[in-house]
Amino acid sequence: MKIITGQMIVIEMLSPALILIAAAILIPLSNDRMKPLIVMAAPLLTLAAIWQIEDGVQGSILFLDYYMLEPVEGSPLRRLFATVFAIMVFFGGLFAYRIASWHELSAAFVYAAGAIGVCFAGDLITLFLYWELMAIFSTVIVWCGGTPGARDAGIRYAIMHLLGGVILKVGIEGIVVSTGSIQIQPMLATDFSTWMILIGILINAAAPPVSAWLSDAYPESSVSGSVFLSAFTTKTAVLALLLLFPGEPILIGVGLYMIMHGIIFALLENDARRILAYSIVNQVGFMVCAVGIGTQMALNGAAAHAFAHIIYKALLFMCAGVVLYRTGKSRCTDLGGLYRTMPFTTICAIIGALSISSFPLTSGFTTKTMISQAAIDEGYMAVYFLLTAASAGVFLHAGIKFPWFVFFQKDSGLRPKDASFNMKLAMAGCAAICILIGVFPQMLYGLLPYDVDYVAYYPAKVVFYLQLLLFSGLAFFILLPLMQRTLTISLDTDWVWRHGGRLLANGLNTVVERFTAVKNRLATKTIKTLSYLSDRYLGQPHKADSEERSVFARSWTIGTTALWISGLLSAYVLAYYL
């Protein structure tokens, strides 16, 4: 290990994230010919730098004369997540560079840099700094949607993530005070500090009841912004859980709840991108559940599924983005029949839909089934059956509902052009990875943190999943009249601040108005009373007749005056001695 001071910098300690930050600075300074080169080259250079990092801490920096920061620490798990993040930046940039503003591209590159920085952070302070970098620039991406809805959603998004950051920071400070260490190492939620860290991470993972920020903000971002947003925040949270809370039992229940929550709301949703947003919650639930199981098989499954999920989810958001870009519409009730003029986008959407549904020969099948197998191996049969049922639910909302209502349902009369050339390249690249991992899973298994003793394909399993998906599809078309959506917006727990907050504000306003009215009445009555008493006891000195004047304006006899003086003096003496 190299120990250096703040004035000494060595190449080994520079995070690959810095390459993307440098690119983000260059993007607004470049012309139209140089910008695509920077957007394409920076992720590839970052990917090359990622694979130059060896296992272990690459060096330490003395911080505040007490703590040793470890900005770069390598491991197979960290490289796996950093690799898929770099791949995602490349395809996202390829998809976006013609339609995204320089503000959005620069913010997206810094956002991705934060995610890669978290991947290699060797201590909690470095992790927190990159964590907050992600929160800031992902908010900028939401605002780049450029609509009033994007502005409002960005504010809500920022509030939620700043709250999560504060909670995480409180937990980190508690760990530092109680242990004196800032090292990233496995822990369990057993005290206040560890619970705060866990809650802070779960907020970024979009765990209910604080998951509404995702379905609120992502669909309000731009066509390209939602592609970037789908890749990083929730998956860095999964990585943090893998590093800090492997085997935490409560995560099994949290993951299962996320899975079912995402399915239910995705089935109710009308907006295509909100369907995909809820499916992120659903899919991250599989990963969180696997982290809770905590075995090597489960952790491998969580990491592998995160890798596959980033790619196929980006592909689905690209397809939804192309539809929105070409038609200006995103609601399922406004779409349909687009396969006629958008065949390439339709094919890519089907590949993404099959991948998320764990269809054999796609990436989802080779990764999600590892999690189910881990549940069986540990005897969690209830968990296994719930995961299996959830796989059928995923096929309903993302595998069939999304492509059917967008591309195949009753013709909407829209005849938009297909995706542009660069968009097609990006979607084709993601689709190819989905198929490649599905056909040759060992290519991914070789990158996982633990040795893989798992066979994805054997006849009984393939037949079982095909039957599961077949009957799920049959149920969809039998219940198709119930699946038809209306012009509605589904509210999640964001009801609390969208409507509940308004009701609370109106109630408080009513209370304040009534209090003000009572106060004004009391003030008026008090003024009248004081005026009356003033007139009675102090006023009317001009009256000629002493008997008609107020009490203290009359002429009093000497005896009466002496009596008042003696009474007041006695009261003063009594008060003084008491």
Shape by Cα distribution: elongated
What is the strand tally? Answer: 5
Question: What count of helical segments does DSSP give?
Answer: 22
Helical proportion? 55-70%
Largest sheet, order of strands side by side? 1-3-4
Q: Assign the structural class, choosing from mainly alpha, mainly beta, alpha/beta, alpha+beta, or little secondary structure.
A: mainly alpha
Order of helices and strands: EHHEEEEHHHHHHHHHHHHHHHHHHHH
Terminal CA distance:
79 Å
Structural features, described:
- The structure is a single chain.
- This protein is mainly α.
- It has a domain at 495-537.
- 68% of the residues lie in helices and 2% in strands.
- It has helices spanning 17-26, 34-50, 76-96, 102-120, 124-143, 148-179, 192-204, 212-217, 225-229, 233-244, 250-268, 272-293, 296-327, 343-356, 363-377, 381-408, 421-439, 442-445, 459-478, 480-483, 495-537, 558-577; strands at 3-4, 56-57, 60-63, 67-69, 73-74.
- The strands form 2 sheets. A 3-stranded mixed sheet has the order 1-3-4, with no helix packed on it.
Entry keywords:
single chain; 578 residues; mainly alpha; 3-stranded mixed β-sheet; two-stranded antiparallel sheet; 22 helices; 5 strands; elongated; disordered N terminus
Ordered list of secondary-structure elements with their pairings:
Elements: E1 3-4, H1 17-26, H2 34-50, E2 56-57, E3 60-63, E4 67-69, E5 73-74, H3 76-96, H4 102-120, H5 124-143, H6 148-179, H7 192-204, H8 212-217, H9 225-229, H10 233-244, H11 250-268, H12 272-293, H13 296-327, H14 343-356, H15 363-377, H16 381-408, H17 421-439, H18 442-445, H19 459-478, H20 480-483, H21 495-537, H22 558-577
Parallel strand pairs: 1-3
Antiparallel strand pairs: 2-5, 3-4
Helix pairs in contact: 1-2, 1-4, 2-3, 3-4, 3-13, 3-17, 4-5, 5-6, 6-7, 7-10, 10-12, 10-13, 11-12, 11-16, 12-13, 12-15, 12-16, 13-14, 13-15, 13-17, 14-16, 14-17, 15-16, 15-17, 16-19
